[in-house]
Amino acid sequence: MISYLVNKGSPLFWLSFHVALGVICTITPWVLIGWFYIVFLSSLFLYVSKNQIPVIYLIFLIAYSTSFELLARMSGTSPYIPYELGKYILFALLIVGILRGYRSGHIGWIMLVLLLPALLIDEAGTATLKNIIFNLVGPINVALAVIFFRQLNLGEKDLFSLVRLLIYPLVSVLAYTIIKTPDLDNVEYTLNANFAASGGFGTNQVSTALGLGAFLVFLFFRYKYKLTGYRWLDLILLFAFVFRGLMTFSRGGMIGGALGIITVFLLSLIYYPQNHVYNKAKTIFFVLIISTMLTATFFYANRMTGGLLLLRYQGETPGTLRGTREKTLNTITANRLKIFLDDIALWRQFPFLGTGVGASSYLRESSRGYNSHTEISRLLAEHGIFGLVYVILLFRLGIYIFRNQCRIPIGAVFIAFYVIALFTTFHAATRTYISPLLFGLSLLTINSDPGGDVTIDND
Questions:
Q1: What is the DSSP letter of 185?
Q2: Where are the alpha helices (DSSP H) in 181-279?
Q3: pLDDT at position 49 over 50
Q4: Exposure pattern of 130-150 as b/e (b: 16+ CB <10 Å)?
Q5: Which residue of 25, 129, 137, 222 is most buried, as measured by CB atoms within 10 A?
Q6: Cα–Cα distance between 425 and 430 in angstroms, integer?
Q7: Residue in 265, 68, 282 with CA at minimum distance from that of residue 166
Q8: CB 319 within 8 A of CB 325
Q9: CB count, 10 Å around CB of 10?
Q10: Region 257-282: what's the mean pLDDT?
Q11: What is the mean pLDDT of residues 246-257?
Protein backbone atom coordinates (compact mmCIF):
# COMPACT_ATOMS: atom_id res chain seq x y z
CA MET A 1 0.00 0.00 0.00
CA ILE A 2 2.90 2.36 0.64
CA SER A 3 3.77 2.13 -3.04
CA TYR A 4 0.38 3.63 -3.92
CA LEU A 5 1.04 6.61 -1.67
CA VAL A 6 4.39 7.15 -3.40
CA ASN A 7 3.59 6.31 -7.00
CA LYS A 8 -0.18 6.37 -7.57
CA GLY A 9 -2.29 9.49 -7.63
CA SER A 10 -1.11 13.07 -7.42
CA PRO A 11 0.41 14.48 -4.22
CA LEU A 12 -2.47 16.96 -4.08
CA PHE A 13 -4.93 14.07 -4.03
CA TRP A 14 -3.16 12.38 -1.11
CA LEU A 15 -2.82 15.66 0.77
CA SER A 16 -6.55 16.26 0.30
CA PHE A 17 -7.20 12.70 1.46
CA HIS A 18 -5.26 13.29 4.66
CA VAL A 19 -7.00 16.61 5.26
CA ALA A 20 -10.30 14.74 5.01
CA LEU A 21 -8.94 12.03 7.31
CA GLY A 22 -8.12 14.64 9.95
CA VAL A 23 -11.58 16.17 9.64
CA ILE A 24 -13.28 12.77 9.94
CA CYS A 25 -11.24 12.01 13.08
CA THR A 26 -13.02 14.88 14.83
CA ILE A 27 -16.22 12.85 14.40
CA THR A 28 -15.17 9.21 14.65
CA PRO A 29 -11.86 7.33 15.07
CA TRP A 30 -12.96 4.25 13.12
CA VAL A 31 -11.99 5.49 9.67
CA LEU A 32 -8.46 6.18 10.90
CA ILE A 33 -8.29 2.76 12.58
CA GLY A 34 -9.34 1.06 9.36
CA TRP A 35 -6.99 3.08 7.14
CA PHE A 36 -4.02 2.58 9.45
CA TYR A 37 -4.34 -1.19 9.58
CA ILE A 38 -5.00 -1.52 5.85
CA VAL A 39 -1.79 0.37 5.05
CA PHE A 40 0.35 -1.08 7.82
CA LEU A 41 -0.58 -4.76 7.59
CA SER A 42 -0.68 -4.97 3.79
CA SER A 43 2.64 -3.16 3.43
CA LEU A 44 4.37 -5.15 6.18
CA PHE A 45 3.11 -8.46 4.75
CA LEU A 46 4.41 -7.54 1.30
CA TYR A 47 7.82 -6.58 2.64
CA VAL A 48 8.22 -9.67 4.80
CA SER A 49 6.95 -12.10 2.15
CA LYS A 50 9.09 -10.82 -0.75
CA ASN A 51 12.85 -10.80 -0.34
CA GLN A 52 13.53 -8.70 -3.44
CA ILE A 53 11.70 -5.61 -2.21
CA PRO A 54 14.25 -2.80 -1.58
CA VAL A 55 14.86 -1.46 1.92
CA ILE A 56 13.53 1.97 0.92
CA TYR A 57 10.07 0.38 1.05
CA LEU A 58 10.54 -0.39 4.76
CA ILE A 59 11.91 3.12 5.38
CA PHE A 60 8.79 4.58 3.76
CA LEU A 61 6.56 2.36 5.92
CA ILE A 62 8.42 3.37 9.10
CA ALA A 63 8.12 7.08 8.30
CA TYR A 64 4.44 6.97 7.40
CA SER A 65 3.07 4.61 10.05
CA THR A 66 4.90 6.10 13.04
CA SER A 67 3.77 9.60 12.04
CA PHE A 68 0.19 8.65 12.89
CA GLU A 69 1.05 8.54 16.59
CA LEU A 70 -0.32 11.96 17.49
CA LEU A 71 -3.45 11.78 15.32
CA ALA A 72 -4.30 8.42 16.90
CA ARG A 73 -3.93 9.93 20.38
CA MET A 74 -6.01 12.99 19.52
CA SER A 75 -8.86 10.98 18.02
CA GLY A 76 -8.96 8.43 20.88
CA THR A 77 -8.21 5.23 18.97
CA SER A 78 -6.81 3.37 22.01
CA PRO A 79 -6.77 0.40 22.53
CA TYR A 80 -7.34 -0.43 18.84
CA ILE A 81 -4.36 1.73 17.93
CA PRO A 82 -2.09 1.86 21.01
CA TYR A 83 -1.73 5.23 22.72
CA GLU A 84 2.06 5.15 22.30
CA LEU A 85 1.81 3.89 18.74
CA GLY A 86 5.09 5.43 17.58
CA LYS A 87 7.15 3.58 20.19
CA TYR A 88 5.78 0.16 19.37
CA ILE A 89 5.62 0.48 15.60
CA LEU A 90 9.10 1.95 15.38
CA PHE A 91 10.49 -0.78 17.63
CA ALA A 92 8.82 -3.57 15.64
CA LEU A 93 9.76 -2.28 12.18
CA LEU A 94 13.35 -1.55 13.15
CA ILE A 95 13.65 -5.13 14.41
CA VAL A 96 12.26 -6.37 11.08
CA GLY A 97 14.82 -4.33 9.17
CA ILE A 98 17.70 -5.45 11.38
CA LEU A 99 16.69 -9.10 11.01
CA ARG A 100 16.66 -8.61 7.23
CA GLY A 101 20.36 -7.74 7.44
CA TYR A 102 20.39 -3.94 7.62
CA ARG A 103 22.59 -3.42 10.67
CA SER A 104 25.70 -1.41 9.83
CA GLY A 105 25.37 1.04 12.72
CA HIS A 106 27.66 -0.82 15.12
CA ILE A 107 27.71 2.05 17.58
CA GLY A 108 24.00 1.43 18.11
CA TRP A 109 24.73 -2.01 19.58
CA ILE A 110 26.96 -0.37 22.18
CA MET A 111 24.22 2.13 23.00
CA LEU A 112 21.73 -0.71 23.37
CA VAL A 113 23.95 -2.66 25.78
CA LEU A 114 24.54 0.47 27.87
CA LEU A 115 20.81 0.62 28.65
CA LEU A 116 20.61 -2.89 30.13
CA PRO A 117 22.28 -2.54 33.58
CA ALA A 118 19.62 -0.07 34.80
CA LEU A 119 17.03 -2.83 34.42
CA LEU A 120 18.62 -4.53 37.43
CA ILE A 121 18.40 -1.44 39.65
CA ASP A 122 15.39 0.06 41.43
CA GLU A 123 16.40 2.55 44.10
CA ALA A 124 12.80 3.79 44.47
CA GLY A 125 11.18 0.36 44.76
CA THR A 126 8.55 1.32 42.20
CA ALA A 127 9.61 -0.65 39.12
CA THR A 128 6.73 -1.96 37.02
CA LEU A 129 6.67 -3.26 33.46
CA LYS A 130 4.55 -0.27 32.38
CA ASN A 131 6.99 2.18 33.93
CA ILE A 132 9.98 0.47 32.33
CA ILE A 133 8.38 0.49 28.88
CA PHE A 134 7.39 4.15 29.26
CA ASN A 135 10.94 5.23 30.08
CA LEU A 136 13.16 2.77 28.25
CA VAL A 137 11.64 2.08 24.83
CA GLY A 138 12.48 5.61 23.62
CA PRO A 139 16.28 5.34 24.06
CA ILE A 140 16.13 1.71 22.89
CA ASN A 141 14.50 2.92 19.67
CA VAL A 142 17.25 5.51 19.25
CA ALA A 143 19.86 2.73 19.48
CA LEU A 144 17.92 0.49 17.07
CA ALA A 145 17.51 3.39 14.65
CA VAL A 146 21.28 3.92 14.68
CA ILE A 147 21.82 0.22 13.96
CA PHE A 148 19.32 0.16 11.09
CA PHE A 149 19.67 3.52 9.35
CA ARG A 150 23.41 4.12 9.41
CA GLN A 151 25.02 3.78 5.96
CA LEU A 152 21.71 3.22 4.18
CA ASN A 153 21.53 5.43 1.11
CA LEU A 154 18.80 6.67 -1.18
CA GLY A 155 18.32 9.03 -4.12
CA GLU A 156 17.40 12.67 -3.69
CA LYS A 157 13.93 12.20 -5.14
CA ASP A 158 13.40 9.24 -2.84
CA LEU A 159 14.32 11.48 0.09
CA PHE A 160 11.58 13.91 -0.84
CA SER A 161 9.13 11.06 -1.29
CA LEU A 162 10.06 10.11 2.26
CA VAL A 163 9.55 13.69 3.51
CA ARG A 164 6.18 13.80 1.78
CA LEU A 165 5.10 10.64 3.62
CA LEU A 166 6.15 12.26 6.90
CA ILE A 167 4.01 15.30 6.06
CA TYR A 168 0.77 13.48 5.21
CA PRO A 169 -0.22 12.47 8.78
CA LEU A 170 0.91 15.87 10.08
CA VAL A 171 -1.51 17.49 7.63
CA SER A 172 -4.23 15.38 9.25
CA VAL A 173 -3.16 16.71 12.66
CA LEU A 174 -3.31 20.27 11.29
CA ALA A 175 -6.82 19.70 9.90
CA TYR A 176 -7.98 18.13 13.16
CA THR A 177 -6.62 21.06 15.17
CA ILE A 178 -8.33 23.63 12.95
CA ILE A 179 -11.71 21.89 13.11
CA LYS A 180 -11.60 21.23 16.86
CA THR A 181 -10.43 24.73 17.78
CA PRO A 182 -13.16 27.32 18.29
CA ASP A 183 -13.02 30.68 16.55
CA LEU A 184 -9.60 32.07 17.45
CA ASP A 185 -11.18 35.46 18.13
CA ASN A 186 -13.14 33.86 20.96
CA VAL A 187 -10.21 31.99 22.52
CA GLU A 188 -9.12 33.29 25.91
CA TYR A 189 -5.36 33.80 25.71
CA THR A 190 -3.12 33.69 28.77
CA LEU A 191 0.60 33.23 29.31
CA ASN A 192 0.10 29.48 29.63
CA ALA A 193 -0.05 26.79 26.96
CA ASN A 194 -3.34 27.05 25.07
CA PHE A 195 -5.26 23.77 25.01
CA ALA A 196 -8.20 25.34 23.19
CA ALA A 197 -6.01 26.34 20.24
CA SER A 198 -4.42 22.86 20.08
CA GLY A 199 -7.70 21.08 19.53
CA GLY A 200 -8.11 20.28 23.21
CA PHE A 201 -5.06 18.01 23.25
CA GLY A 202 -1.55 18.22 24.74
CA THR A 203 -0.03 21.47 23.55
CA ASN A 204 3.57 20.27 23.70
CA GLN A 205 2.85 17.31 21.42
CA VAL A 206 0.70 19.30 18.99
CA SER A 207 3.26 22.09 18.81
CA THR A 208 6.05 19.59 18.17
CA ALA A 209 4.10 18.01 15.30
CA LEU A 210 3.14 21.33 13.73
CA GLY A 211 6.67 22.70 14.07
CA LEU A 212 8.04 19.60 12.37
CA GLY A 213 5.39 19.94 9.65
CA ALA A 214 6.44 23.54 8.99
CA PHE A 215 10.08 22.51 8.64
CA LEU A 216 9.30 19.61 6.30
CA VAL A 217 7.15 21.79 4.03
CA PHE A 218 9.93 24.40 4.03
CA LEU A 219 12.33 21.78 2.61
CA PHE A 220 10.24 21.59 -0.55
CA PHE A 221 10.75 25.33 -1.06
CA ARG A 222 14.44 25.24 -0.26
CA TYR A 223 15.24 22.48 -2.74
CA LYS A 224 12.69 23.50 -5.41
CA TYR A 225 10.40 20.52 -5.18
CA LYS A 226 6.63 20.88 -5.27
CA LEU A 227 4.60 19.36 -2.46
CA THR A 228 1.07 19.97 -3.69
CA GLY A 229 1.98 20.73 -7.28
CA TYR A 230 1.34 24.45 -6.79
CA ARG A 231 3.83 26.82 -5.16
CA TRP A 232 1.14 29.14 -3.81
CA LEU A 233 -0.64 26.23 -2.15
CA ASP A 234 2.63 24.98 -0.65
CA LEU A 235 3.13 28.46 0.80
CA ILE A 236 -0.34 28.45 2.35
CA LEU A 237 0.36 25.06 3.93
CA LEU A 238 3.70 26.25 5.33
CA PHE A 239 2.17 29.26 7.04
CA ALA A 240 -0.83 27.26 8.23
CA PHE A 241 1.58 24.98 10.12
CA VAL A 242 3.48 27.97 11.52
CA PHE A 243 0.43 30.00 12.49
CA ARG A 244 -1.49 27.17 14.15
CA GLY A 245 1.64 26.00 15.93
CA LEU A 246 2.25 29.48 17.34
CA MET A 247 -1.33 29.72 18.57
CA THR A 248 -0.84 26.68 20.83
CA PHE A 249 1.45 28.90 22.96
CA SER A 250 3.71 25.86 23.37
CA ARG A 251 7.19 26.99 22.43
CA GLY A 252 9.30 23.83 22.22
CA GLY A 253 7.93 22.38 19.01
CA MET A 254 7.96 25.68 17.14
CA ILE A 255 11.49 26.48 18.27
CA GLY A 256 12.53 23.01 17.09
CA GLY A 257 11.07 23.63 13.62
CA ALA A 258 12.73 27.05 13.52
CA LEU A 259 16.10 25.52 14.45
CA GLY A 260 15.75 23.11 11.54
CA ILE A 261 15.06 25.97 9.12
CA ILE A 262 17.93 28.05 10.54
CA THR A 263 20.29 25.07 10.22
CA VAL A 264 19.50 24.72 6.52
CA PHE A 265 19.82 28.49 6.00
CA LEU A 266 23.21 28.72 7.72
CA LEU A 267 24.70 25.74 5.92
CA SER A 268 23.44 27.15 2.62
CA LEU A 269 25.23 30.45 3.26
CA ILE A 270 28.44 29.16 4.86
CA TYR A 271 29.35 25.91 3.14
CA TYR A 272 27.90 25.89 -0.34
CA PRO A 273 26.79 29.33 -1.54
CA GLN A 274 27.47 28.36 -5.16
CA ASN A 275 25.61 25.05 -5.16
CA HIS A 276 23.63 23.64 -8.04
CA VAL A 277 20.30 24.97 -6.73
CA TYR A 278 21.07 28.61 -5.97
CA ASN A 279 24.00 30.94 -6.35
CA LYS A 280 24.94 33.02 -3.34
CA ALA A 281 22.80 36.02 -4.23
CA LYS A 282 19.69 33.94 -4.78
CA THR A 283 20.31 32.07 -1.55
CA ILE A 284 20.52 35.31 0.44
CA PHE A 285 17.37 36.62 -1.28
CA PHE A 286 15.54 33.39 -0.47
CA VAL A 287 16.63 33.58 3.18
CA LEU A 288 15.45 37.17 3.48
CA ILE A 289 12.07 36.52 1.84
CA ILE A 290 11.22 33.42 3.90
CA SER A 291 12.54 34.97 7.12
CA THR A 292 10.48 38.11 6.56
CA MET A 293 7.31 36.11 5.87
CA LEU A 294 7.80 33.89 8.93
CA THR A 295 8.46 36.92 11.11
CA ALA A 296 5.35 38.62 9.77
CA THR A 297 3.34 35.49 10.60
CA PHE A 298 4.64 35.60 14.18
CA PHE A 299 3.71 39.25 14.68
CA TYR A 300 0.29 38.72 13.09
CA ALA A 301 -0.33 35.91 15.59
CA ASN A 302 1.02 38.14 18.37
CA ARG A 303 -1.43 40.89 17.40
CA MET A 304 -4.33 38.41 17.48
CA THR A 305 -3.37 37.45 21.04
CA GLY A 306 -3.10 41.02 22.28
CA GLY A 307 0.69 40.84 22.55
CA LEU A 308 0.65 37.79 24.84
CA LEU A 309 2.38 35.52 22.32
CA LEU A 310 5.55 37.63 22.33
CA LEU A 311 5.50 37.74 26.13
CA ARG A 312 5.13 33.96 26.19
CA TYR A 313 8.22 33.50 23.99
CA GLN A 314 10.09 35.99 26.19
CA GLY A 315 9.46 33.64 29.13
CA GLU A 316 7.09 35.92 31.01
CA THR A 317 4.50 34.55 33.43
CA PRO A 318 1.65 36.27 35.32
CA GLY A 319 3.95 36.34 38.36
CA THR A 320 6.90 37.93 36.58
CA LEU A 321 4.66 40.60 35.06
CA ARG A 322 3.19 41.44 38.48
CA GLY A 323 6.66 41.53 39.99
CA THR A 324 5.86 38.78 42.51
CA ARG A 325 8.10 36.21 40.82
CA GLU A 326 11.61 36.59 39.54
CA LYS A 327 12.21 35.82 35.88
CA THR A 328 14.83 33.07 35.77
CA LEU A 329 15.92 30.36 33.38
CA ASN A 330 13.69 28.00 35.32
CA THR A 331 10.57 30.12 34.73
CA ILE A 332 11.53 30.57 31.08
CA THR A 333 11.79 26.78 30.65
CA ALA A 334 8.50 26.13 32.50
CA ASN A 335 10.28 24.36 35.41
CA ARG A 336 12.19 22.02 33.13
CA LEU A 337 15.47 23.36 34.49
CA LYS A 338 14.42 22.38 38.02
CA ILE A 339 13.73 18.82 36.90
CA PHE A 340 17.04 18.77 35.00
CA LEU A 341 19.00 19.91 38.06
CA ASP A 342 17.19 17.40 40.28
CA ASP A 343 18.20 14.66 37.83
CA ILE A 344 21.82 15.81 38.00
CA ALA A 345 21.62 15.71 41.81
CA LEU A 346 20.40 12.11 41.62
CA TRP A 347 23.28 11.27 39.28
CA ARG A 348 25.71 12.60 41.87
CA GLN A 349 24.02 10.43 44.48
CA PHE A 350 24.02 7.31 42.30
CA PRO A 351 26.93 7.96 39.90
CA PHE A 352 27.75 4.43 38.79
CA LEU A 353 24.54 2.48 38.14
CA GLY A 354 22.00 5.27 38.54
CA THR A 355 18.58 5.00 40.18
CA GLY A 356 17.21 2.40 37.78
CA VAL A 357 14.74 2.78 34.93
CA GLY A 358 11.84 5.09 35.78
CA ALA A 359 12.91 5.61 39.40
CA SER A 360 14.13 9.20 39.10
CA SER A 361 10.67 10.81 39.21
CA TYR A 362 10.05 9.18 42.61
CA LEU A 363 13.35 10.24 44.13
CA ARG A 364 13.73 13.90 43.16
CA GLU A 365 13.42 16.36 46.03
CA SER A 366 11.69 19.42 44.56
CA SER A 367 10.15 17.85 41.42
CA ARG A 368 8.97 14.51 42.79
CA GLY A 369 6.32 12.84 40.65
CA TYR A 370 7.07 14.78 37.47
CA ASN A 371 8.25 12.94 34.37
CA SER A 372 11.59 14.12 33.08
CA HIS A 373 11.29 16.29 29.98
CA THR A 374 15.02 16.18 29.25
CA GLU A 375 16.26 12.82 28.07
CA ILE A 376 19.93 13.54 28.71
CA SER A 377 19.45 14.27 32.41
CA ARG A 378 17.13 11.28 32.77
CA LEU A 379 19.75 8.99 31.23
CA LEU A 380 22.35 10.28 33.68
CA ALA A 381 20.08 9.95 36.71
CA GLU A 382 18.69 6.52 35.89
CA HIS A 383 21.65 4.89 34.11
CA GLY A 384 24.64 6.50 35.82
CA ILE A 385 27.99 6.17 34.08
CA PHE A 386 26.40 4.01 31.38
CA GLY A 387 23.97 6.81 30.62
CA LEU A 388 26.87 9.24 30.34
CA VAL A 389 28.60 7.03 27.75
CA TYR A 390 25.28 6.71 25.88
CA VAL A 391 24.97 10.51 25.75
CA ILE A 392 28.57 10.90 24.57
CA LEU A 393 27.97 8.41 21.76
CA LEU A 394 24.81 10.28 20.76
CA PHE A 395 26.76 13.55 20.49
CA ARG A 396 29.53 11.76 18.64
CA LEU A 397 26.97 10.72 16.03
CA GLY A 398 26.10 14.39 15.60
CA ILE A 399 29.74 15.24 14.92
CA TYR A 400 29.93 12.36 12.43
CA ILE A 401 26.81 13.58 10.60
CA PHE A 402 28.07 17.17 10.44
CA ARG A 403 31.50 16.21 9.12
CA ASN A 404 30.05 13.98 6.41
CA GLN A 405 27.12 16.16 5.32
CA CYS A 406 27.99 19.84 5.89
CA ARG A 407 29.50 20.45 2.44
CA ILE A 408 26.81 18.57 0.51
CA PRO A 409 23.79 20.75 -0.44
CA ILE A 410 21.21 18.10 0.41
CA GLY A 411 23.25 17.10 3.47
CA ALA A 412 21.77 20.06 5.37
CA VAL A 413 18.52 18.07 5.58
CA PHE A 414 20.18 15.31 7.58
CA ILE A 415 22.00 17.74 9.88
CA ALA A 416 18.70 19.53 10.50
CA PHE A 417 17.02 16.19 11.29
CA TYR A 418 19.65 15.60 13.96
CA VAL A 419 19.30 19.13 15.38
CA ILE A 420 15.50 18.83 15.68
CA ALA A 421 15.77 15.34 17.18
CA LEU A 422 18.29 16.47 19.78
CA PHE A 423 16.38 19.63 20.68
CA THR A 424 13.14 17.66 21.06
CA THR A 425 14.82 15.50 23.72
CA PHE A 426 15.18 18.68 25.81
CA HIS A 427 11.45 19.42 26.00
CA ALA A 428 9.71 16.09 25.28
CA ALA A 429 12.45 13.53 26.13
CA THR A 430 12.06 10.53 23.78
CA ARG A 431 8.44 9.81 24.64
CA THR A 432 7.23 10.50 21.09
CA TYR A 433 8.34 9.00 17.79
CA ILE A 434 9.98 12.22 16.59
CA SER A 435 13.40 12.04 18.28
CA PRO A 436 14.15 8.33 17.65
CA LEU A 437 12.92 8.51 14.05
CA LEU A 438 14.76 11.73 13.16
CA PHE A 439 17.96 10.50 14.82
CA GLY A 440 17.74 7.49 12.51
CA LEU A 441 16.87 9.46 9.37
CA SER A 442 19.77 11.82 10.04
CA LEU A 443 22.14 8.89 9.42
CA LEU A 444 20.90 8.27 5.88
CA THR A 445 23.11 9.28 2.97
CA ILE A 446 22.39 10.35 -0.60
CA ASN A 447 23.83 8.16 -3.33
CA SER A 448 25.27 9.48 -6.58
CA ASP A 449 22.14 8.49 -8.51
CA PRO A 450 19.49 11.15 -7.87
CA GLY A 451 16.90 8.39 -7.86
CA GLY A 452 13.28 8.55 -8.81
CA ASP A 453 9.93 7.39 -7.60
CA VAL A 454 10.27 3.93 -6.16
CA THR A 455 8.25 1.41 -8.10
CA ILE A 456 7.29 -1.69 -6.16
CA ASP A 457 5.59 -4.72 -7.53
CA ASN A 458 2.36 -5.33 -5.61
CA ASP A 459 1.51 -8.63 -7.26
A1: G
A2: 203-222, 231-247, 251-270
A3: yes
A4: ebbbbbbbbbbbbbbbbbbbb
A5: 25
A6: 6
A7: 68
A8: yes
A9: 10
A10: 76
A11: 91
Angle between helices 251-270 and 231-247 (to 10 degrees): 140
Give the number of residues written for the chain.
459
Q: What is the pTM of this model?
A: 0.92
pLDDT tier at 102, thresholds 50, 70, 90: confident
CB atoms near residue 239 (< 10 Å): 17
**Structure confidence at residue 274 (pLDDT):** 55
State yes or no: pLDDT of 297 exceeds 70.
yes
pLDDT (average), residues 308-314 = 89
**Among 143, 141, 154, 109, which residue's Cα sits nearest to residue 6?**
154
Q: How far apart are the first and last CA of the chain?
A: 11
Distances (CA, A) of 24 to 19, 21, 31, 82, 180: 9, 5, 7, 19, 11
